[in-house]
Amino acid sequence: MPSFRAFRIHNDDAGHRAGIETMTLDALTPGDVVIQAQWSSVNYKDALAGTGKGKILRRFPLNGGIDVAGVVAASTSPAFREGDKVLATGCGISETLDGGYAEYVRLPASAVVALPGSLTTREAMIIGTAGYTAALALLRMTDNRQTPAKGPIAITGATGGVGMLGIDIFSRAGYEVHAISGKHDRFDTLRQLGATTCLDRHALAFSGKPLDSARYGGLLDNVGGKTLAGLLPLIAPYGNAAICGNAGGPELATTVLPFILRGVSLLGIASAGSPRDVRENVWQRLAGEWRPRHLDTICTREVALDQVTSVFEGMLAGGSFGRTVVRIAP
């Protein structure tokens, strides 16, 4: 197999550095399945890893990119054959395994999922880890008896990838969605995705009471911190708060009262390490009854492999909006 391009991240005696390099297959981390990558995406973790501003990689050097979709180029696993369209997210990709910012990716078969037939590889990467996280939250909430009848779902960080895809996915599943974001100039777009109400997070005023009048049937929270603490007292009896981010800080100053008096459940959404059967289930739903209807709106930027660094700083500064896909093929 010929040499190929990859966005490779180093951290050694010379310090942190990252950029496009030429490498060969035998330099990749081990795996059963070789994927000729077509598309990837840019996530917050990718920006942290690529700039060295977060401790994402657990070994060096590694190729960046926690998401990838493409075509199987070679496989020693009976589960996959040459020519199969596949995707992979999480599972240690760009943490302990070489990631998707490369023309070829080699992964353990356990990390690879067959691409559902109704999705293209590009569509799969618009969804990517962000959409998978939102759909995993919906799966866990419905498994815990969340229903539209309990009331609206509040979604924080609504202009990010998880937030925008969450609005689309939850509204597609029949839920009324209230979007919370500090970017009020984007509210028209959030309404197009399916939000019935948009709230400026800067204008949120919480009473500080351990319990307040129930306004929401459930919550998909990307923020944590004071925002999560303020919203928990507003969740209706036996509603669920699915937590998948900490943009507002990891601390949580709250009381036990929403949990012991209203039966509210706090659900942790750890998308990177979810079991294989769960990943397959979620991707089938994302290609079926939960398929986002507005992927062209949610995908706000497309860049080539050698342009990924142009996205990182703006994302870390809070300037991202929607999803950025990375075109791997020349």
Automatic annotation (TrEMBL):
<dbReference type="InterPro" id="IPR013149">
    <property type="entry name" value="ADH-like_C"/>
</dbReference>
<protein>
    <submittedName>
        <fullName>YhdH/YhfP family quinone oxidoreductase</fullName>
    </submittedName>
</protein>
<dbReference type="InterPro" id="IPR013154">
    <property type="entry name" value="ADH-like_N"/>
</dbReference>
<dbReference type="Pfam" id="PF08240">
    <property type="entry name" value="ADH_N"/>
</dbReference>
<dbReference type="InterPro" id="IPR011032">
    <property type="entry name" value="GroES-like_sf"/>
</dbReference>
<dbReference type="GO" id="GO:0043957">
    <property type="term" value="F:acryloyl-CoA reductase (NADPH) activity"/>
</dbReference>
<dbReference type="InterPro" id="IPR014188">
    <property type="entry name" value="Acrylyl-CoA_reductase_AcuI"/>
</dbReference>
<dbReference type="InterPro" id="IPR051397">
    <property type="entry name" value="Zn-ADH-like_protein"/>
</dbReference>
<dbReference type="Pfam" id="PF00107">
    <property type="entry name" value="ADH_zinc_N"/>
</dbReference>
<feature type="domain" description="Enoyl reductase (ER)">
    <location>
        <begin position="18"/>
        <end position="326"/>
    </location>
</feature>
<dbReference type="InterPro" id="IPR020843">
    <property type="entry name" value="ER"/>
</dbReference>
<dbReference type="InterPro" id="IPR036291">
    <property type="entry name" value="NAD(P)-bd_dom_sf"/>
</dbReference>
